[in-house]
Write a structure and sequence with these properties.
Helices cover 96% and strands 0% of the residues. With 49 residues, it is mostly helical. The longest helix has 47 residues. The model has no long low-confidence stretch (mean pLDDT 77).
Amino acid sequence: MDTYSIVKMMIIFITITIIIIHIVISDSNDTNNDNANHDAHNTNYNSNT
């Protein structure tokens, strides 16, 4: 029972860590994608006019 609870706590801790890392990575990726899309949109708009 003691070993099980330790393993359970480790799994929960690892899961939370992975979720936090995933949020941080996806946030930075979203920002980069937004900027890239914005630049592409501006380029298309300028070339059309």
